[in-house]
């Protein structure tokens, strides 16, 4: 039922997500060795800052120059940054590289989502986004495990170079695909395309509802990525076990995307988002109360189940509401909200945590409040739709 281009895109996404996610378990300790332990919250926040700032440009370019050039640029940035991590000898250099690295996710996923929306019909959109998410989840699951194994048995430099190599492979796969942006819309790249002349080139008004829900429901992701390495260590998960949380989380996300990929196609986007938000809140409560590794990993599984339902549904809802000629900008709007949520979550988590394990429940509690706010908004939308019917 799916084209070769779809499966190539899934492979490219798997390699891309594996590339930068394999660094996550090791970066907090790496920054500590550089003398920047108090800046752990910036590891994710700086990455998402430039990812968010680049979205208006990547969305506009995806609608004018093409989907594939946007993806190629994102993978190229990931390749270059992975290669240069071993040469960061100061905290300032590390932070600068994290800023630059963020451009990779500012471009690659925007082009990917627009490409998939071009080739998949409406009635299969939720399922297709779920399958694409499966590829990303495999990369996210394998990446941290591979990264920790490479760092333990070889060196951090080996891990960084392997990350760069995976991004290069993702780039090679994209070179085999055919552009899906209609020829009538395509333009040659020029610097004037990087000028943002109106707010409509930054935000697509049609998709503000899914964008707001994305911001509120992705806040926990930034917070979790920031504190999980420390919480893992507190609970005795060290060495090769350091990446177990990510493995359990992405494994559960993988399973639910395979099993429930078409759920939102059948029952609607908002009802599925309400259910997934409740599961995420439950996961955060478990993580806040976790006093042992098994309970902690159970929270990871719940978190994976919730986000595994949440993410593809948000993508599909965004594409549903977008105009075909502004699809890249609509996807970029959703991603701006995603980066804002993750970045805020990471910054506030770093501030609340302050390297004190006793503060971990407060981090997860704050995340739960954000998701509850998103859940309240979804319930309001659901009631309005019921009244209109």
UniProtKB/TrEMBL annotation:
SUPFAM superfamilies linked to this entry: MFS general substrate transporter
Signal sequence annotation: none
Entries under Pfam families matching the protein: MFS_1, Sugar_tr
Alphabetized CDD domains for the sequence: MFS_YfcJ_like
Methyltransferase recorded as keyword: no
Keywords carried by this UniProt record: Membrane, Transmembrane, Transmembrane helix
Bilayer-spanning residue ranges: 6-27, 39-58, 70-94, 131-152, 207-228, 243-260, 272-290, 296-318, 330-354, 360-380
Gene Ontology CC terms: membrane
Lineage: superkingdom: Bacteria
Molecular function terms from GO: transmembrane transporter activity
InterPro entries linked to this entry: MFS, MFS_dom, MFS_Exporter, MFS_sugar_transport-like, MFS_trans_sf
Predominant cellular place of this UniProt entry's protein: membrane
Keyword Repressor appears in the UniProt entry: no
Localization of this protein: Membrane
Gene3D superfamilies attached to this UniProt entry: MFS general substrate transporter like domains
PROSITE patterns given in the database record: MFS
All residue ranges annotated as the Major facilitator superfamily (MFS) profile domain in the record: 5-385
Protein name, entry field: MFS transporter
């Amino acid at each position: 039922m799916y084209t070769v281009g779809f499966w190539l895109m899934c492979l490219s996404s798997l390699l891309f997500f594996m590339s930068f996610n394999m660094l996550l378990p090791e970066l907090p300790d790496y920054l500590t060795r550089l003398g920047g332990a108090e800046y752990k919250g910036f590891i994710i926040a700086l990455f998402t800052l430039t990812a968010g700032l680049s979205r208006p440009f990547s969305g506009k370019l995806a609608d004018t120059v093409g989907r594939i050039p946007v993806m190629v640029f994102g993978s190229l940035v990931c390749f270059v940054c992975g290669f240069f991590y071993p040469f960061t000898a100061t905290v300032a250099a590390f932070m600068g590289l994290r800023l630059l690295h963020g451009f990779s996710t500012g471009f690659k996923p925007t082009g990917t989502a627009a490409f998939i929306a071009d080739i998949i019909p409406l009635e299969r959109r939720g399922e297709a986004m779920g399958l694409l998410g499966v590829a990303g989840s495999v990369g996210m699951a394998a990446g941290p495990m591979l990264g920790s194994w490479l760092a333990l048995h070889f060196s951090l430099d080996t891990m960084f170079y392997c990350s760069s190599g995976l991004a290069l492979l993702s780039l090679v796969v994209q070179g085999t695909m055919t552009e899906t942006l209609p020829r009538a819309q395509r333009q040659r790249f020029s610097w004037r395309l990087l000028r943002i002349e109106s707010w409509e080139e930054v935000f697509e008004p049609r998709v503000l509802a899914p964008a707001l829900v994305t911001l509120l429901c992705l806040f926990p992701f930034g917070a979790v990525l920031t504190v999980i390495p420390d919480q893992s260590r507190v609970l005795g998960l060290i060495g090769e076990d350091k990446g177990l949380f990510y493995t359990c989380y992405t494994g559960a996300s993988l399973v639910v995307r395979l099993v429930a990929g078409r759920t939102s196609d059948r029952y609607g986007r908002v009802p599925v988002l309400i259910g997934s938000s409740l599961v995420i809140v439950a996961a955060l409560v478990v993580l806040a109360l976790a006093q042992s590794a098994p309970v902690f990993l159970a929270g990871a599984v719940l978190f994976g189940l919730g986000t595994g339902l949440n993410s593809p549904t948000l993508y599909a809802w965004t594409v549903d509401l977008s105009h075909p000629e502004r699809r890249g900008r609509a996807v970029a709007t959703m991603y701006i909200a995603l980066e804002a949520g993750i970045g805020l979550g990471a910054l506030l988590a770093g501030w609340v945590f302050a390297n004190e394990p006793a503060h971990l429940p407060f981090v997860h509690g704050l995340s739960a409040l954000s998701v509850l706010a998103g859940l309240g908004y979804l319930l309001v939308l659901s009631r309005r739709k019921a009244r209109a019917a």
